[in-house]
Amino acid sequence: MKTLYLDLENGISGDMFLAALCGLGLKLDSFEKKLKQAGLVTELRAAQVTRRHFQGWGLEIEESSPQPLRHLEEMFEAVKALSLTDQVWAHVRHALVRLAEAEALAHGIPLDEVHFHEVGGVDTIVDVAGAFWGLSELGIERVVAGPVPWFEGTAETCHGLISLPAPATLRLLEGKPVAGVWADWEIITPTGALLLDCLVDEFSGFPGGTLLRQSLAFGTNPRGGGLRACLLESLPAETRHADLEAVWILESHLDHLSGEELGHALDVLMDEGALDVLFLTGIGKKGRPAGSLRVICTEESLEHLENVFFRETHTLGIRRRQEMRKTLPRTACQVYLEGVDAPLQGKAYNIGDKKFCKPEFSALKQAALENSTSALELKTRPVLK
To answer: Nearest CA to 198 among 58, 98, 302?
Structure first.
């Protein structure tokens, strides 16, 4: 598994992130062609630059012509013209909605009145679509980042002088770990905050693995430092802990499904090969009842179950991460209960030097029907052997 680690000490913007991917080996030729066909840009230039005696990567975007102000639906139409894969398109759409929501809340206006002037309509499309497309092209499956740097200062906008971080940036950084730094200018743009919100699977220290490549990317502000990105390959599980196995966690927050639809989705995911499913209830945005749907699966079933997840829930984004699990060996067994003539199918396992054998609940239910009692009552009866 390929993991991308982001060192955020000097901040992040959309163009810095895409430039960092270019430093890791991403080629923009095919993406540039998509943008040209959509009438958005004539040229993308990712090139090495030197700043403060360090060499890194920078990105320049040359627009094909003056672009109109775009509202959310116009942004969707522009991205659709790029002919991205369904998965990349779903991620980009979700990210644009998140950015529009943050801007709408910051300015106190309805979602459909948000127009992408301050964050730059074309730049936003290039940065956001390019980020998800680039991760897919490089085969990166997990993004980890260090603490988010806090910064201060002011910035001149079309709404006047505002304090930093910008209101939309602040909303997108909610729930993220922050650390104070010395910067008094905008080192995290709204688009940069959006990428942290939608791309990062975990905020933690440097992850383990084999370092494949590293890159340093600079933004447009000459005062700013660089975004350092490291591409790693996770060590095979068997080389770390022989008794552990790798599993994948797929997760999404849902607030739009009825109880029947949610129950059906859980059943289908199990039928299609999930190791386990779980729905954790809570309260989502705008005070709506919501919950987190979590699916555990193997590497072999990951892509299939992710597609099933999208199909059965119509969520617009799924987080994925790899975790290690340790399981107890188990074997099939027969359980004899007091007062029940036929043996019940069960599973046997050991914890330490003690052996346990318990009946499957489906077997308990069937025995309860045959013996005119409840499964709960049968469960309390002594095990004969």
So the answer is: 98
